[in-house]
Amino acid sequence: MNTNKLIAALIADLKPVRRLLPPAWRLVGWLAMSIPVTALVVATMRIRPDIAVKLSAPVFMIEQLASLATALIAGWSALVAGVPGEARWKMWAPVAPLAFWIASLGHQCWVEWIRLGANGMVFHPDFMCVPAIAMISTVPSLSMVWAIRRGACVRTSTAVLWGSLAAAALANVGLRMFHTEDAALMVIVWQFGSVLLLMAMAMLLRNYLLPKKWGTPGRG
Amino acid sequence: MHQDDSKWASLMAAAQNSDQNSYARLLCELTPVLRRLARQGWLQGSDADIEDVVQETLLTIHQTRHTYDPNRPFLPWLLTLLRRRIADGVRRRSRTNRREMVIDALDVTFIDSPANIEYEPLVDSEALRAAIKRLTPGQRQAIELLKQKEIPLKEASAMTGVSVAALKVATHRALQRLLSFLAVKK
C-alpha cells in the first residue's frame, strides 16, 4: 500500500482513546485485584499455627519482605516495559530485590549448614509447592497479562519475565503464610524452584500470552 | 528536531482526543523523519524495506497512541517504536534471504535463438510512424485503434461504424503493407 493512502486510512480510523495510566497506578490496580485473592487462598488453606512466632523472627520477615519487594518491583517493571520511551534501567530494577531475596535464602542455608552440618540439611520431595504457587498465582498472573496487553507491543519478553516473577513472588508470600516448611534448602529448591518454573513456563508461552499484534487502543 | 518535540507532543495529545487535523499534520511531518531515521538505522535495507519499516511504524503509532503520555517527551516514545520495527524488518529480511535465492532477470525465454527478444530485428520507430502515414485512412484508423490503442474489435466497430469484418480486413491489409514498407524479413 502507498504510504499516503495508509496515512489517509489511519486518519479516517482516528477515534478518541483512553490514555494509559502511569505504571505505578496500574500496579496499584493489579495489587487491588491480586492481594484479596491471595489472602482468600491463605485463609482457605488455614494460616500456619506458628505465624505469630514466625512474624517476630527477623529471618522469616526479611525473606517475606524480599519476596514482596520482588513482586512489587517486578510488577512495576513489567508494566513499564509496555510503555515506549521509558528508561532502560527500569527494565533492570527487579534484579536488585531478586538478588536480595536469593541472598536471604542463601544466608539462611549457610547459617543452617554452619549450625547443623551436612546431616542437618533436610531434603525430601515436597511437590505441593508447585501446584500451590500455581494456584495462588492464577489470578495475579491473568490480571498481569491483561494489564500488560493494555500497553504497547514492545519489550514483550521483558514484560512476561517480570510479570510472571511478580505473580509467582506474590504467591510465594502467600504460600509461606500457610505452608510450614522452613528448612532453607527446601525453601530454595521447592518454593523458589516453583517460582523459576512458573517463570520459565510463562516465557515459553509468551507468544500465546502476548500475541505480536494485540487489540486496539482503549476507547475513550 | 528537539524544537519539534513539543510541537509533536501537542499534536499527539490532540490526536488522542480525536482531532483529525492534528493527526494528519503529525503523520505527514513524521513520515519523512521516520524514513530518514530508518535509513540511518538500517543501512543495508532496500528502499522497499525502508518503506515497509515506515509504514509498520505508522501503524504501530496508530495502535499504541494511547500509551503516549503528553507530559513526557515525544521523541523517545517514537524512537522506541521505530527501533522495534527496524529490528522486525531486519529479522524478516534475514529470514527471507535464507529461504529465497536471487536470480537475475534475463530476457531469455527459450533456448532457441529466434524465441529471444534480443535477436529480434530492431525497428526504427520513426520509420514505423512514417510507414503508418502512408496507409489509406481506413487502414490507418484500423491500425491506430486495434494495434496502437489495443481497443477490442467490437468497441472499435461501434466507435467507427465500420463492421468487424471490414476492420479485420483493413488491419490485415495494413499489416501487409507495413511489412512491405519496412522491408522486414521473416
Attribute tags:
heterodimer, A: 220 residues, mainly alpha, 11 helices, B: 186 residues
Brief summary:
The complex is a heterodimer of chains A (220) and B (186). By secondary structure, chain A is mainly α.
Can you describe this structure?
The complex is a heterodimer of chains A (220) and B (186). Chain A starts with a helix and ends in an 11-residue tail after the last helix. Chain A is an all-alpha fold and 220 residues long. Chain A has 11 helices and no strands. Chain A is 70% helix and 0% strand. With 186 residues, chain B is mainly alpha-helical. Chain B is 69% helix and 0% strand. The longest helix of chain B is centred in the middle third of the chain and has 26 residues. The mean pLDDT of chain B is 86. Classes of the chains: A mainly alpha (220), B mainly alpha (186).
Helix content of chain B: 55-70%
Distance between the termini of chain B: 66 Å
Low-confidence stretches of chain B: none
Largest interface, Cβ cutoff 8 Å: A-B, 28 and 34 residues
| Unreliable stretches of chain A | none
**Share of residues in strands of chain B:** under 5%
Mean pLDDT across the residues of chain A is 87
Q: Care to count the β-strands of chain A?
A: 0
> What is the number of helical segments of chain A per DSSP (H or I, 4+ residues)?
11
